[in-house]
Amino acid sequence: MTTEVKVPVLGESITEGTLGQWLKKPGDSVKVDEAIASLETDKVAIEVNAPVAGVIGALVVNEGDTVEVGAVIATIEEGAAAAAPAPKAETKDAAPAAAAQQAPAEPGKTSDVLSPSAKRAAGETGVDPSTVTGTGKDGRVTRVDIEGAAAAKPAAPAASATPAPASSGGRKEERVKMTRLRQTVAKRLKEAQNTAAMLTTFNDVDMSAVIEARAKYKDLFEKKHGVRLGFMGFFVKAACQALRDIPAVNGSIEGDEIVYHDYADISVAVSAPNGLVVPVIRDAQDLSVAGIEKTIGDFGKRAKDGTLKMEEMKGGTFTISNGGVFGSLMSTPIINPPQSAVLGLHRIEDRPVVVNGEVVVRPMMYLALSYDHRLIDGREAVTFLVALKNAIEDPTRLLIDL
User: How far apart, in whole angstroms, are the C-alpha atoms of residue 268 and residue 278?
Assistant: First the structure.
């Protein structure tokens, strides 16, 4: 019996996606609910699972094709594996061939199940995917894994005295179609620039107190809560208090009205194999630092696995983007409409500062608040950053609600 595999419902208002990668090929056996393909939508990559057990028949569409919800993308022959004739007794000559068929796939075959972004990263870095341990779903190698392996590669040995062959002089170009997610990101960011009266205000913060607290309690924190104590928990908690005091930063413009929110749904940027995604911490104002860290940790893990849900990416009243994890010293982040502000965090570095009339070295971080000047005045933006700075430099404020 032949069963059709169709594009599942992708979420509210999403009617189509792009077939990003086939995870199975014709003739492969599959179990019920086993992933056979990945789809890229405007927000996130999701997997298409087998509705029945059997053997993959035809693949109806190609990688990179646009498919609508409900469209047939493949077929599965139910019970084909069970109906296959029993193998005949092996002859002496046939035994080696059968053993070869049952042997594990060659290392080089790993490239057959790489996503387009991982293949591109492998080509750019020269990393052999078969030598990389995958952190994606079912151990698949992701773009992040490839780039990490490239960064860990030892430097190439010094060139020998033998002259290198002359270059042919040819220059190469590669054209790669933008993923649907990247197209949507590009469109939304440009819309934000065209619509909002965007301005960025900066401040810096002394991270000494938070670093000290983290060093003192990180082991106990992880033992009790099962998650590492990072810096984002402090910043999200501090941002929630500042948003409560400066409600315009947590608002949005709809037509000729301003919408103020009495809750803080904080969007946090996390890395995924196909780029950054921005899931939302709902009602962050009600969460403890531990609750925030657990939520962010879960988002990060599922972003790598490609299992974030559509509804987890929607909404959000304020965004925090931590470019510091990539080494960024300073930036002007772009707001995520319909939100009116985004906070950019950057790398921590020792810098000389004046404290009580003396020059001392402290671990400092630049903060950047980009905001829609149509709604948020400069005074409100600066007040928000100062409130955030005060809470981070004296974390006790977070406990006594100052």
Answer: 5
Return the CATH superfamily for domain 198-400. Answer: Chloramphenicol acetyltransferase-like domain (3.30.559.10)
What CATH number does domain 108-152 carry, 4.10.320, 3.40.50, 2.40.160, 1.10.3470?
A: 4.10.320
Residue 401 catalytic? no
Contact 39, 20 (CB under 8 A): yes
Q: Which of 33, 112, 138, 377 is catalytic?
A: 377
145, 373, 394, 401: which is the annotated catalytic residue? 373
129-150 pLDDT, tens digit each: 778 877 766 677 776 677 777 7
Cβ neighbour number for residue 330 with a 10 Å cutoff: 15
The whole-model pTM stands at 0.63
225 is catalytic: no
The pLDDT value recorded for residue 223 is: 93
Residue with tokens 């909404």: 315
pLDDT of residue 94: 45
Note the CATH number of domain 1-83: 2.40.50.100
pLDDT score of 311 more than 70: yes
